C-alpha cells in the first residue's frame, strides 16, 4: 500500500469503479484493525478519507489523481506525507488543512456525546445507526453500528465511559461496548413512543428513560446487566 495506493485509485477510476473504493478501503481498515496490523490500518483509513473527500475529482480525472487531488489533501495526512513530492507536484500555499476533519460522514445526526474522559465521541443518525470516533485524530473506530429499526434520538455514555446507550424512535434503548463496538446486554424495551431523554443515577447502576407522551422508566443497568425494569413513573402530561 505504501507504494501503489495512488496507482490503485487511478486504476479503479479508469475502470469506472472509483465509487466502490471507499467501501473497499473501509473493509480493509476494519480487517487491519481487527488483526492488529497498525501500519495498514492507518494508511487504509487515510486512503478512505481521501477517496471519500475527493470522490468527484477522482471519478472525473482518472489519470490525474496525484496531480489534481493529492496537493489538496491535509498536510499531516498519511497519504500526503507518503505520496506528495514537492519537486514534481503542485504545493498549496494557503487555505490548506493540517488534518482531516473529525467528521467523515455527511448525514443527519440527532445526538452527539463525548465519553467522560473526552477521548472518544459518538453520534446517532437518522438512519438508525451509530458511530464512534477518536476525538484527537477524528479516526472512526466503529460504525455503522446497526440494531435500531428507526432513527436514533439520543446517545449517552455510562459514567465509566465503557458503554454507550442509544435511544431510538422505535421505543428501545440499546447498549454498546465502546471498546469493541459490539452490542451487549439486553435491549431495554418498554416504551411505546420515541425515547427522548435518558439519565444515569450517580453510581451508574440505574438508567432513567423517558419517551414522548409516555411513562418514565427506571432500569437496572448494574454490572449484572439484567436490564430489569424496576420502576415505572407515570405522569399526566
TrEMBL record:
Keywords: Repeat, WD repeat. The keyword RNA-binding does not apply. SMART domains: WD40. WD repeats lie at residues 111-143, 145-186, 188-229. Gene3D superfamilies: YVTN repeat-like/Quinoprotein amine dehydrogenase. One of its GO terms (cellular component) is transferase complex. InterPro entries: Quinoprotein_ADH-like_sf (IPR011047), WD40/YVTN_repeat-like_dom_sf (IPR015943), WD40_repeat_CS (IPR019775), WD40_rpt (IPR001680). This is Uncharacterized protein. It comes from Pleurotus ostreatus (strain PC15).
Amino acid at each position: 500500500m505504501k507504494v501503489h495506493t495512488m496507482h490503485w485509485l487511478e486504476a479503479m477510476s479508469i475502470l469506472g469503479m472509483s465509487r466502490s473504493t471507499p467501501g473497499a478501503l473501509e473493509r480493509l481498515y476494519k480487517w487491519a484493525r481487527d488483526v492488529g496490523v497498525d501500519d495498514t490500518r492507518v494508511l487504509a483509513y487515510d486512503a478512505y478519507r481521501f477517496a471519500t473527500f475527493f470522490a468527484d475529482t477522482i471519478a472525473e480525472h482518472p489519470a490525474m489523481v496525484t496531480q489534481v487531488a493529492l496537493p489538496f489533501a491535509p498536510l499531516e495526512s498519511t497519504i500526503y506525507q507518503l505520496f506528495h513530492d514537492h519537486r514534481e507536484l503542485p504545493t498549496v500555499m494557503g487555505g490548506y488543512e493540517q488534518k482531516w476533519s473529525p467528521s467523515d460522514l455527511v448525514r443527519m445526526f440527532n445526538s452527539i456525546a463525548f465519553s467522560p474522559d473526552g477521548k472518544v465521541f459518538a453520534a446517532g443518525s437518522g438512519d438508525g445507526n451509530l458511530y464512534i470516533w477518536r476525538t484527537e485524530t477524528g479516526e472512526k473506530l466503529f460504525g455503522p453500528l446497526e440494531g435500531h429499526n428507526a432513527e436514533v434520538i439520543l446517545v449517552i455514555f455510562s459514567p465509566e465511559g465503557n458503554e454507550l446507550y442509544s435511544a431510538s424512535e422505535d421505543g428501545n434503548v440499546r447498549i454498546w461496548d465502546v471498546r469493541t463496538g459490539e452490542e451487549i446486554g439486553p435491549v431495554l424495551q418498554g416504551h411505546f413512543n420515541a425515547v427522548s431523554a435518558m439519565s444515569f443515577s450517580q453510581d451508574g447502576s440505574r438508567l432513567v428513560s423517558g419517551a414522548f407522551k409516555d411513562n418514565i422508566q427506571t432500569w437496572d443497568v448494574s454490572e449484572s446487566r439484567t436490564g430489569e425494569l424496576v420502576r415505572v413513573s407515570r405522569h399526566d402530561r
